[in-house]
Each structure stands twice: as structure tokens, then as C-alpha cells.
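W.,

You were right to be curious about this one. When I first looked at the sequence I had no strong expectations either way, so I just let the prediction run and decided to look at it fresh. Below is the sequence, 71 residues in total, followed by the output.
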Amino acid sequence: GSLRTLIESSAPLPAEQAVSLVRKIAEGMAYCHKMDVIHRDLKPENILVKKDGQPVIMENVTCKCCPACIW
């Protein structure tokens, strides 16, 4: 489910789980930015949390690498 669903069903998250999720999301965003990919709508609804706890950043990206995305 989404991070929004996890937050709504399990808040407050245990500190260790929250820190792990935030760290992984930040690492994912840093990698995207390094690759010239910008997420235009990062929010809990656009982050899928897999059963193993791994977050997956979804949707609304723009990149500089292809003509369709150059802003």
C-alpha cells in the first residue's frame, strides 16, 4: 500500500521504521536528482511501501534526458 495508508493505519510509526523509510526515500530522491530526474509531486500517496518495508517512489517525474521532459 501507499505510505499514506501505512501512516493512517499505524501512526505513530516506530521511530526505527520511520527513520528507515525516510532515509530510503531520501536516498532514492538523491539518486533521481543525480540522474537529472525531478519528482514534481512527492507525497505519501505517491510512495508505495512494499511488504518488506522497501519504499518505491511513483509517478510525476520530469527529466532533462529526453526531449519530451525538458522544461
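Here's what jumped out at me. The first strand starts at residue 37 and ends at 39. And, maybe more interesting for your project: The radius of gyration is 14 Å.

Coffee later to discuss?

I.
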